[in-house]
Amino acid sequence: MSHVKAGGSSKNVHNNAGQRLGVKRFGGQTVSEGEVLVRQTGSTKIAGPGTFMSRNFTIHAAKAGVVAFKKVKKGRFTGKTAPRTQVVVE
Questions:
Q1: What number of other Cβ atoms are within 10 A of residue 27's Cβ?
Q2: 9: which of 28, 33, 41, 76 is 20 to 30 A away, CA to CA?
Q3: CATH of the domain at 50
Q4: How many domains are there within the chain?
Q5: Long-range contacts of 53-59 (CB under 8 A, 24+ apart)
Q6: What is the spatial distance between Cα 89 and Cα 63, in angstroms, rounded to a whole number?
Q7: What is the pLDDT of residues 5-50, one digit of tens each?
């Protein structure tokens, strides 16, 4: 009688490249207009004055200047506030 072993889980399937997320320009660094400051999945950090957020939540510099990070409270839809880091170009 022929026999086929049970199909186990494949182990070598997680071989995709990383997304290279994270902070690209840190506080105190000078940046030019349009430069990428933060690459992120979802709005973990919010865009402040001198910055803008693109469709994939990447924060860019809207003007040339110096990068700063500030802690702010952002209101949610339910009325609860959540702490967020705001990226600012001064």
A1: 12
A2: 41
A3: 2.40.50.100
A4: 1
A5: 59/87
A6: 7
A7: 777 777 777 788 999 999 999 999 999 999 999 999 999 999 999 9
Question: What is the pTM for the complete model shown?
Answer: 0.80
Question: Taking phi first (over 0 means left), then psi (-120 to 50 degrees means alpha), and beta for anything else, what does residue 58 get?
Answer: beta
Write the CB contacts of 36 (distance below 8 Å, at least 6 apart in sequence).
24, 25, 58, 59, 60
Tokens 């802690």 belong to: 71
Asked if the structure places residue 11 within a domain, the reply is: no
As a whole number of Å, the end-to-end CA separation of the chain is 77
Count of CB atoms situated within 10 Å of the CB of 52: 14
